[in-house]
Amino acid sequence: MVDFVGDDLQGARFERVNLAGARFTEVDLTGAEIHGGELADFRIRGVDLRRVVLRGVALDGVEIHGEIGSLTVNGVDVGQFVSDELDRRYPERARMRPTDAAGFRDAWDVVERLWTGTVERARGLDPALLHASVDGEWSFIETLRHLVFATDSWIRRVILGDPSPWHPLDLPWDEMRDTEGIPRDRAARPSLDTVLALRRDRMATVREVVDGLTDASLDALTEPVEAPGWPDPRGYQVREVLLLILNEEWEHRLYAERDLTALAARP
User: Cα angle vertex 79, ends 73, 84, to 5°?
Assistant: First the structure.
């Protein structure tokens, strides 16, 4: 097996090459083209697919989970249809797109209530299963740890100005490169109660922020935090930061519910 690590292969040409089972991690394929390839059983995760064009392809049994905007299939833009269908299935989803301060407080009420039900459901499982992965995704405990990381990064660092808000159990997304000062202990196995204590503290912080919102403050820019870490030190609109947090909370709870169903079905 040949490994290419840190190599510059820009403009490389591969013809009649067998890459079955190959693994691509942190590769830049911007502008790349594939003609006459075989991608059956191909798995893509954490990849930017904006402006990708697929022509003359055979798609059957394909699953897409992610942020979907405009998506044209055989001349039909199905992106809005997907969004409308998700709103129909989950009536409270539309409340995750508030436009004023009162709407953000209402949205956070929904987040708190829904997560309370999900956590109670998780407590009904064998605690060992809460550390189990389903189809290579984060375990339930890891999902909670990631949401702590998201709150620390966007609320405590960006909005509240704490230059280093992270807890040792914070868990960044898998594709994030190691960053000074940010923990990423994938081997940690904290108990559910330990992680929930962190979650309660961080969710209370978000509650304080949304309770103090005004319609004017939503459009304000945050002060850049000039310290190592993430996100990058620049000003962010408060509205956009809070919408991002609502989206993280909503989507990861759905993933958690999906995986809890699979875990409950295990022998």
Answer: 135
Q: Which residues pair with 221 in a beta bridge?
A: 237
Instruction: Determine contact, residues 83/72, Cβ cutoff 8 Å.
Output: no
User: Do 192 and 139 meet the contact criterion of CB atoms below 8 Å apart?
Assistant: no
First-to-last alpha carbon distance for the chain, in angstroms, is 37
- Angle CA(178)–CA(179)–CA(181) in degrees, nearest 5? 125
Euclidean distance between CA atoms 108 and 246, whole angstroms: 8
| pLDDT tens by residue, 101-116 | 999 999 999 999 999 9
Strands 76-77 and 72-73: antiparallel
E-assigned strand segments in 154-223: none
- Give SS3 for 42: coil
What Å distances lie between residue 198 and 195, 205, 245, CA to CA?
A: 5, 11, 16
Q: Give the rounded percent of residues in the chain with a pLDDT score beyond 70.
A: 100
Domain ranges of the chain: 97-264
Which one-letter amino acid corresponds to residue 134?
V
Of 1.10.10.2910, 2.40.50.140, 3.30.70.20, 1.20.120.450, the CATH number of 97-264 is: 1.20.120.450
Separation between Cα atoms, residue 166 and residue 156, nearest integer Å = 9
Contact at 8 Å (CB) between 213 and 194?
no
**Does residue 215 register a pLDDT over 80?**
yes
**Token pair of 237 as six digits:** 């609109």
- Secondary structure class of 89 (helix, strand, coil): helix
Distance, CA of 244 to CA of 250 (rounded, Å): 10
CB 112 within 8 A of CB 203: yes
